[in-house]
Amino acid sequence: MKLDRDTYGTVMLVYVLCAAGIFLLLRYVPVWWVSVPLSLGLLWVCGWQTYFHMVPDRTPAGSDTLVSAVSDGKVVRIEKVFEPTYLKREVLLVSVYMDFWDLHANFYPVTGTVSYTEYFPGMHLLAFKPKASEENEHCSTAIRTVSGKEVLFKQLAGGFARRIVCHATPGQEVRAGEQLGIIKFGSRIDLYLPVEARLLVKEGDLVKAIQTVIAEI
Length: 217
Known about the structure:
Elements: E1 2-3, H1 8-28, H2 32-52, E2 54-55, E3 66-68, E4 73-83, E5 89-98, E6 105-107, E7 112-120, H3 132-135, E8 138-144, E9 150-157, E10 163-166, E11 173-174, E12 179-184, E13 187-194, E14 198-199, E15 206-207, E16 213-216
Antiparallel strand pairs: 1-2, 3-16, 4-5, 4-15, 5-13, 6-12, 7-8, 7-11, 8-9, 9-13, 10-12, 14-16
Helix pairs in contact: 1-2
């Protein structure tokens, strides 16, 4: 794995703050059974944040007909909905919630051409709430496959997320499993599939970005 290029500054800031905290604890807190455990806790935070922002090296399972997971996480919602922003038709919605222990790098779910991308400023409700899909800050991206089918997905900011990174541009040729960006801290991915798609996951399933196939279209 490697550290995501868009998180160097964030991780360095965590290192600096933790180093300052450890220095103050060891310098000004004379009670070792207080200062040492707290210092070890700050070292743990450094390790966790490094892992959190890593980009995994995995074998892609998606293609122009197989939709792979955009992110690590847990499937928390599957249902038919009407997508009003871009597709403007009934689709299958698959929501994947990322918690603090999941890698947060995001990847293209299918091979094709980016047909749409748009950033929406918004609120920062807890990402597992259904209304977060419309009201939270998010970035939407659609990919059109060679067969003409379109897959839309949203990178949703959560209650603690404060930055969404998306490198997709309209007209760009992409392959399933290539990295498109990252969401910093708690967040969710909403994946909108053609209504006739054959789902290969169910609510409660844990999925891995790149290597878990969500559906066949």
